[in-house]
Amino acid sequence: MAINPRFKVSMVDVFPHGAYVVSEVEPVRDWDKSSAGRAVQATDKESGLLVWSVSVLDADPDARKDAKTVTVKISAPHQPVPPEAMAGMPFRPVEFDGLTVTPYVNENGGRARIAYSLRATGMRAPQMGSAKPAPRSNSGEAA
Fold it and tell me: What is residue 2's predicted lDDT score, i.e. its pLDDT?
């Protein structure tokens, strides 16, 4: 039995409070095929499409400090264009299509922990009402 290491997830599963683009979309370098004078862009092993990366801010107020900004790799034939910023704000809310997560063991610093790689097939501006924030716990005070 072959198990695909990429698990399909929804935007709400990964970013229940939303996500915001905080970097430019950049090509991912294929370190095995590149040389000192010649950079080669990585291609997705499953689709054969070019791989791009973008950093996003997880809007979850309870997210750990070291997990607030994550990288999402996007497989696409052309460089994806981030959504426009919100009017009067520097933030660019984003939703990802075809989102998958791949767990792996990160042994950085001699301490092994489970980490996750996020991939998508596209990005776009959020559709109104498509993602509902997770309910906040009630502090017990009456409204």
Answer: 67
Number of domains in the chain: 1
Cβ count near 108 (within 10 Å): 8
Query: Domain range spanning residue 42?
Result: 7-124
For every residue of 23-85, DSSP letters joined together read: S--EEPB-TTT-BTTB--B-B-TTT--EEEEEEEEE--TTS-GGGSEEEEEEEESS---PPPP
Burial category of 49 from C-beta neighbours within 10 Å (exposed 0-12, middle 13-18, buried 19 and up): middle
Residue 134 lies in a domain: no
Identify the pLDDT of residue 1.
56
User: pTM of the predicted model, to two decimals?
Assistant: 0.82
